[in-house]
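User
Please review the sequence:
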Amino acid sequence: MKTLTLAGQTVPTIGIGTWHMGDQPRLRETEIAAICAGVAAGARVIDTAEMYGSGRSEDLVGEALSSLDRQQLFLISKVLPENASRDRMQTSLEASLKRLRTDYLDLYLYHWRGSVPLAETVDELQRLQDQGLIKAWGVSNFDIADLQELWSLPNGPHAQANEDLYHLGSRGIDYAVLPWQREHQLPLIAYSPIAQGDAWGQHLTTNPVVKQIAAQHGVSIYQVLLAWVIRDPQVLAIPQTSSVAHMQQNIAAMDLTLSDAELAALDEQYPRPTRKEPLDVI
């Protein structure tokens, strides 16, 4: 099982994303079962946010946590830009903690940049860490200029992660963001690592090279896509699924290592960027 160090803890390189989970009451038991199956299969990281379903995802995760060992989990949530101020962030965090039925987060992320000055947001994140409500903090949807600005602040280098969109069909951050994060030893959390099932027309699941690699290894196409994302030892992938079987397959992708020849073949199909591209977000 591949691992990386995130906020001082060793965690497996595939975790559990929860965007869109908790929105449909009829799926609640199935979604909780999927989260529990992921943990049973070896996942430790569970990623959620106050934005997801206006708190419904956090509430779902909180119910799942009631049957799990909280001390063995690495729990991430995120604060909305409009709540990322000195006056509002602690209230927002405490509401998240209540929904999650826990008294601390392992990592609290600034979900994306808004109108609050970055220095104010960072200082408040650091204060909440010093207070013990969060063990660490980081950012999300940050591009290279955002990261450079973050690092220029007194508390900026205390950040422990950046979470960006990253998958085989969306490689913009390979040009500048990922090299910068490697240099500064800042792990990447890759959201939508399997492209939401080809939601944006990259045709990853029907690509003949992807299909051939999957067939050669006797694994699913999605496991190949996940193995590609975590080929970098400083990247954590957080795929989302409400299916127990798919969840187990996602976690098992940590055991799949693609050869140099396979990685080169995938690069030919989906080339590394040769210039700066706008940051992909969804």
Notes: The chain has eleven helices and ten strands. The mean pLDDT is 96.
